[in-house]
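Lab notebook, bench 4. Still working through the backlog of constructs that have no structural model yet. Next entry is a single chain of 139 residues. Request: give me the structure tokens for it.
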Amino acid sequence: MNDTTMWWVLAGGLVAFELASGTFYLLMLGLGATAGALTAMAGFGTNIQLVAAAFVGGMGALLLAQWRKRQPTTRQEDNDQHLDLGARVEVEAWDALGTAQVKHRGAAWTAVLAPGQTATPGIYRIQAMAGNRLVLEKI
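Model written out:
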């Protein structure tokens, strides 16, 4: 098998794995393998092929990582996943740590107050979820 064929097979395999995994990093490495195939087709030696593949694949992965860092993630997008937001719960008492145990959907949950709220018994609305805790605001 010549170098060009090896690079094209590698590029195809990386793209196939990317389709199965759903990440774009393997796609960037597939682009690097494509660059290796193109340099092999141009008649360059193995060292130049490896440098071209590493450079294109590495730069693609770095640029993808930088692009993903810059993408804004709004709090609303994070909260859209939680169907419990807006539901009402009853708080009977708050403890000294500022938490309460509430029943919601048949299970006991630990609840904390949203910023600016006072700890008084009553009906609260689920404003957000912080890990496995409900963040509550007074209705």
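Notes after review: The chain has a mean pLDDT of 89. The two ends are 72 Å apart (CA to CA). Flag for follow-up if needed.
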